[in-house]
C-alpha cells in the first residue's frame, strides 16, 4: 500500500538540544505524524504537521476508559550519515496485537512502518550523531469519541512523536539493582499484560516508589496467580545466565513480547549459546545467586537495550550478582545489538531498515 | 475550606435534548469545572468555563502511562424543584483512594463536593425533571505533563463534566442476562481493581463483545487467581438472595467499593434482612439456581441503580433466575434508593446533599 501523506512544514524550527544532555523523553521534535480513524472512513487523513498541542473533547473516551496503545522504537544515525530503524516490523506486529486485545482498529504493517519512515525523514536533523544517542519514536493510538459508557470508541487518533534521547546510562552499561515485588502485581493471565497499553504502567508506579526507597532502579514482577514465577522487570524483559545456560521467562500472556528479547534469543542461538524460555521461580534464582551458579542477569528493552542487573533485593536484603559487575555475555549482547543498530556491525540478520 | 471559583459563562447555550431520548453519556452541558495541579502550586485556578475541547500536548502522560481516575454520581431534581446529590462524600473518598493507589495528587473531600455543587448550580436547567432521568456527573483527573518515561506526572487536570441521562432501562427495571467469564480477568489482588481508573475498563471490552454475542448485557467477572470466586458484574457490584439471606462478594482489593453497594447493605441492615459480605464461589451460585434456593440476583451501580439479573450464562447455557422476573427485594431496593435520591422518600440516613 502507498499512503499519501500531506506534509505541512513548521515555520519556526526549535533549537536542537545539547546531545550530551538529552536524557529520555524530555525533548520533542518540530513535527509529528497524525492520522484519524472513524467507523465510516477507516484510517484517513495521514499528515505530517508541526508538533503542537492537540484538541480533545473532555469526554474523549481515552480519558475515561483507557483505550490507548503505544509502541517504542529508535532511529540511529550511522557513521556514513544514513538513518536506520531497528526491526520496525516487529513493533508493527505487536501494535496490532495490542489493538486486537483492546478492541481498537489495526493499522497495516506497511502503513505503520511507512508512517515512521516518513516522519523520521522529515526530522532527519534531529537524529543525534553522538554514539549511544538516538531518536526515540513513539507511535500511539488513542480513543477520541466524546461519550461516556463502557464500549469501544468509534473514533481514534494515531500519532507518531519523536524525542532525541541520550545513552540510557550516560556512560554506557551500569548495573542496576532490582527489587523483587511480592505484594503488588503488574498483570495476570486473562488480563492485558501482553498488550502495550497505558493501562499496564499506572499500577506499577507505587511499586516503583517502594523500589526506589530500597535503592533499586526497577521492580521485578512476579506472576499474579502464585506470586512465585518471574515475569519481567520494569519496562524490560529479563534474562539469567545460570551454569552456562541462558534462561528467560516464557511468554505466558501476561508478559510483554519484547523486540529486544526476541533479538537476544536469536543472537544467542546464532552464537551457539544455550537459551531456554521457561517458567522461572524466583526462589530458584535466589538459590542460584547463593550457590554461585547465577553468573549474570540482565534486562532487555528498547530504552536501555541491555541493562546489567547488579543485585536483586528480596525479602529485605540485597543479593549481589556477579560482584555487582557487568558480565561478559551481557557486554557482548550490548555491543552486538547497539553495533547492528548503529550500522557499525554487519547486519547479517536483516534487522535494520533504512529510512532513506 | 472555601475555594474561590472563577466563573466564565458561555455566550451561546445549547438547546436542551428531549428528556425522553437522553440515553446515557451522549449529551454534555454548557459548562465544565476545571482546576490544575502542578508540583509547585498544588491545586489551583478553580474555574467554571464553557464546555469546549481542551488542548493537550501529544506527549501528555495520560496518553502513554494511564494516570487517569474518575468518579460517577448523579444529581436529581425533586418535585419541589430542589437539586439533590446522592452521597457525594463517598465518591470524594473513593476518588482519593484511587489517587493514592495511582500516585496522583488528592483533592480534599470538601473541595471535591464544593466543585460539584458549584458546577451543578450553574447547570441547574440541565437537571431533567422527568422521573428516572438525572444529571450524570463525571469528575476526573488526568496526567498532563508532556514527557515520556514511566513515573508519576508532575502536572494534572481535574475536570467535572455533566451529562443529562435517561432512566437506564427506559421503562424502569428490566432483568438482564449476565455471562460468567472464565477466560478473561478484570483485576487481581495486588493490582488496581479497587481503584476507579480508566485502566480497569479497557481490558473488559473484549469479554463484553463475547457476552453480547451470547445475548448477555454484562460480564460477570471471577477472581484472577482461582477463577472461581465472583467479583463483580460489568460496572456494577452484585448481590444474591439465597434462602432468604442476601450475600455479596467481600471487598478483597480487586473489587470496586461501590456507593450503591454500600447503600444497599445499609438499607438491608435497616430493614432487618440478613446480609453478608463473603467469598462466593460461582459453582455455589449455579447450584443454588439449580436447586431453587437462589431467589433473586441483582447488580448495583450509579448508572442503573439496581439491575435485576434474569439469567446467568455459564458453561454454554443460560441459567434462568426467578423465572426471568424481577424479584420482590430487588424492586423494593430500587424503589427505596431512587425514592431517596429524588426526594420522594424521607432521607432518614442523611444521604442526600442539596446543591442550593
Ligand atoms: C512492560 C515492558 N516489558 C518489556 C519491554 C521491552 O520491550 P522492547 O524490547 O520491545 O522494547 C517494554 C518496552 O520497552 C515494556 O514496556
Ligand atoms: C467496575 C465497577 N464496579 C462497580 C461499580 C458501582 O459503583 P457505584 O455504586 O459507586 O456506582 C462501578 C461504577 O459505577 C464500576 O465501574
From TrEMBL, chains A, B:
It is an enzyme of class 2 (transferase). Its cofactor is pyridoxal 5'-phosphate. InterPro entries: Aminotrans_IV, Aminotrans_IV_CS, Aminotransferase-like, B_amino_transII, BCAT-like_C, BCAT-like_N, BCAT_family. One of its GO terms (molecular function) is L-valine-2-oxoglutarate transaminase activity. It catalyses: L-isoleucine + 2-oxoglutarate = (S)-3-methyl-2-oxopentanoate + L-glutamate; L-valine + 2-oxoglutarate = 3-methyl-2-oxobutanoate + L-glutamate; L-leucine + 2-oxoglutarate = 4-methyl-2-oxopentanoate + L-glutamate. Keywords: Amino-acid biosynthesis, Aminotransferase, Branched-chain amino acid biosynthesis, Pyridoxal phosphate, Transferase. It comes from the Bacteria. Its EC number is 2.6.1.42. Pfam families: Aminotran_4. GO terms for biological process: isoleucine biosynthetic process; L-leucine biosynthetic process; L-valine biosynthetic process. The modification N6-(pyridoxal phosphate)lysine is found at residue 196. Belongs to the class-IV pyridoxal-phosphate-dependent aminotransferase family. This is Branched-chain-amino-acid aminotransferase. It comes from Paenibacillus contaminans.
